[in-house]
Fold:
Amino acid sequence: MNTKELSASLAGDVLLGGEISVHRLGFGAMRLTGEGIWGPPKDRKGALAVLRRAAELGVNFIDTADSYGPHISEELIAEALFPYRAGLVIATKGGWNRPGPNQWTHDATPRHLRSAVEGSLTRLRLERIDVYQLHIPDPVVSFESSVETLAQLRNEGKIRLIALSNVTQEHIERASRIVPVASVQNRYSFADREWDYVVDYCERKQIAFIPWFPLGAGKVAGEVLDRIAKAHRASPTQIALAWLLRRSSIVLPIPGTSSIAHLEENVAAASLRLADEDYQMLSRVPELAASR
Structure:
């Protein structure tokens, strides 16, 4: 692989909220924390090096959350990249509490969200967060009150754009009555198409869609992915990302890693173009799996 030719810019651009243009291959910073998304990484210098290399490779959209660590991911981003270069967008989230490793409890109350935004501003060393996402709707808190709180923080100048994560189309429509929705982040891949209709809705509304867990799982997915990857002399990860990039011009994958080699492999997918036959075959993976 010729790393001189690596650039996230080769994936093209997507417009967030009609205001901010970013390259359509970002970086997810969740995996930079310790095991169970808890505590500091085993290799702090390595984590900082990955973030700096991502910026060198043209990645200008980094996704994180106050719950990653908790707080560790945001702190690492600031340590590695502050002062931030022009055009770098850091998207963070709030709406969870973290009692321990691999433990997550809902809290999207107005009080918690306001505290979460203030904390993220401090850790990221920002006066305003470009993109702030409600991490997940809280089943015991009014969804409207959560979104209204973020809208108030936007009016106060602490948030530029508001986004959603782990939501249905109905959630997007309800939030949109309160404030414009810049992006939606749901679990999605060529083999996991539960949120296909949300991708289509976002495309119609020109809302960026950020897929998390972008690799397909299961035997059928692996067989198809491996075959196409070999034909392209690419890795399965690269093929999975190439499918997402082709799925829609509003899709913004954010593959995460704690390895520079894996980061470079992911960014190389920005220039990979799938043939129609390969794209259609990957698109049929859920159908093929169901028939077995």
Notes: The first strand starts at residue 13 and ends at 16. The chain has one domain: 3-290.
